[in-house]
Amino acid sequence: MKVSFLSLVLSCFLLAFAVNVAARESMPATKDSAVQKGMGIAKRAEARDSGFGSYSAKAKMELKNKKGKVTTTRTFDFKFKEVPGDADKALTAFLSPANVKGTVLLTHGHKSRDDDQWIYLPALKRDKRILSSGQTGSFLGSEFSFEDMRSPVIEKYTYRFIRTEKIRGFDCFVVERIPLDKKSGYKKQLVWLDKAELRLHKIEFFDRRMKHSKTFEAKGYKAYKSKYWRPMSISMSNLKNGRSTLITYSGYNFKLELSDTDFHKSVLKRP
User: What is the mean pLDDT of the chain?
Assistant: First the structure.
């Protein structure tokens, strides 16, 4: 079959047009569109996980050395509550071992101002307020900082879509997240959210010198109330010192109706 030169040119044009359309669909054409797409993904992820009210869980924290050997094991209870019109509240109460038993971390998140965060240390029999200037400090010697123990609030970051990428079999959006807080320990973060359910799978943290300093991963997701996905384990690996911290969860309970009094500062000193 003969093919005319005009037909060949037209076919090449149509092929090039199709390739360009596909490229535009997979990647924003401009910086503005990348920002809009990144913010859109963040807002959809927040909306996707809203409405649960409150929940609790039991957890085990394992601190590991450079060789991956567990050096310290702790257990704690965790409570979380949505706050309409503001950020969430969280309470972490340690149960074992004896040297941390009774230690409580209380966080009140806020959208338009700095979060409130306190820690109660039973050995000192007093609570201590964690200031923004101290949020980069290690949380009880783990690779999680006090900042990591706070829920990210959309209003406190800028977002930009970077690319799509597969991780552990999940097709994910990769979004750049930059803290607006100048006292943050991070200059930027790269966040992996799967396309199917917008679950968080990975975060790469870059320090103030723009060096990749830590990596967070969440695994083993299960759905509660047929909608709310929660990981069975999370980990934070420190690339600077080689150590890591693993937290495994069990006993998620979404049937609780926790009130603001359950997260009042007075709970810090309760047994």
Answer: 89
